[in-house]
Amino acid sequence: MAGRAVLTGANTRIRRVVNMLVFVLACAPRAAIGETPPADSGPRVPGIVLREVHTSSGVLEADTLVTILTPGRMLVIYGDVHTILDVTGNRFALLETATATYRSIPFTEWEKEVRWSLEGQGPPDTLRFEPMGGEAVPIAGQPCWRYHVYARHEVYPGEFVSIEQEIWVTRDLALAPGAVATSRRVQESLDWIGFDAPVVRPEGVALRTTIRRRPEGAGMSADEFEVNEAITVDRLDVPAAWFEIPAGYTRVQDEAMDPGAEPAPADTSQPR
User: Fold this and answer.
1) Are 247 and 104 in contact (CB under 8 A)?
2) Residue 127: its pLDDT value, please?
3) DSSP 217-260
4) What is the pLDDT of residues 162-197, one digit of tens each?
5) 92-104: buried (b, 16+ CB within 10 Å) or exposed (e) per residue?
6) pTM exceeds cut of 0.85
7) Could you give the CA distance from residue 102 to residue 92 in angstroms, rounded to a whole number?
8) Is there a contact between 96 and 28 (Cβ–Cβ < 8 Å)?
9) Whether pLDDT at 30 is above 60
């Protein structure tokens, strides 16, 4: 649909969405190894730590991402950029460790932005990942099953790209209910960014994701590929301080975030 032509950058709301998330993959140093912050002696919460390798067509070197998932909170680390997705505290924050600066808006505002469409547009059709069958494949020591979805995405008015996405999902991580709810809520927004539509995913955690994009009418030579694959999965008690803005960081206000926006009251409906 023509609602969010994300590549044009012509609309302030669109630029905000793109800057808030694509910034993580586009602006951090290439091939940087994401490292977790130093541990401290404060309170800890049970979590899952995923280390993933990200590769894409046209880029020779792979990147490493670290995702930390706990009930109510998620932290994504890519080079010098740390993204805090705090459902419990209602905060979406981008931290740049190299400059000790951060940008922040309420998490619920970020959710609204990625679901925005042009006035008068009807609701998009729901997409659904379908099972591909076959035996489980081990990824990062976990058995994973393969699912597939195909979509047609309008990136400019009248200009479409076909998207094929395959995911390999494990159901054996036994996440706490609050962590499952957090993962699903964040993934729903990421799917809106990728597909401009709601997506029904299978239960579990995707440990490998492959994406193929092709401009409509183009040949195979125009295909663009991306692959994210987990290389380690660890259950750890992680410091709660990892999900807070570190002392001494300076807030930056620009078009990417609503100037002066402060976190709204905590979302008490989210399991802790």
Assistant:
1) no
2) 94
3) T--GGG-EEEEEEEEEEEEEEEEGGGGSPPTT-EE--STTS-TT
4) 999 999 999 988 888 899 999 999 999 999 888 888
5) bbbbbbeeeebbb
6) no
7) 10
8) no
9) no
Q: Quick one: pLDDT at residue 34?
A: 46
Strands 205-215 and 224-239: antiparallel
Provide the token pair at 40.
């401290």
Q: Which amino acid is at 61?
A: E
Cα distances from 70 to residues 175, 178, 183, 193, 263, in angstroms, run 9, 7, 9, 23, 19
pLDDT score recorded for residue 51: 95
At 114, the pLDDT band (50, 70, 90 cuts) reads confident
Residue 69 CB partners (closer than 8 Å, separation 6+): 47, 48, 50, 175, 179, 182, 183
d(CA 272, CA 149): 31
Which domains can be identified in the chain, with CATH numbers? 12-118+125-251 (2.50.20)
Residue 56 tokens, joined: 């894409």
Give residue 19's pLDDT: 41
Residue with tokens 């922040």: 104
Task: Kindly list the distances between the CA atom of residue 272 and the CA atoms of 70, 73, 92, 116, 231, in Å, as whole numbers in the listed order.
Answer: 9, 9, 17, 28, 27
CB 64 within 8 A of CB 230: no
The residue whose two tokens read 């008015």 is: 157
Tokens at 234, concatenated: 């660890």
DSSP 125-161: PPEE-EE--S--EEETTEEEEEEEEEEEEEEETTEEE
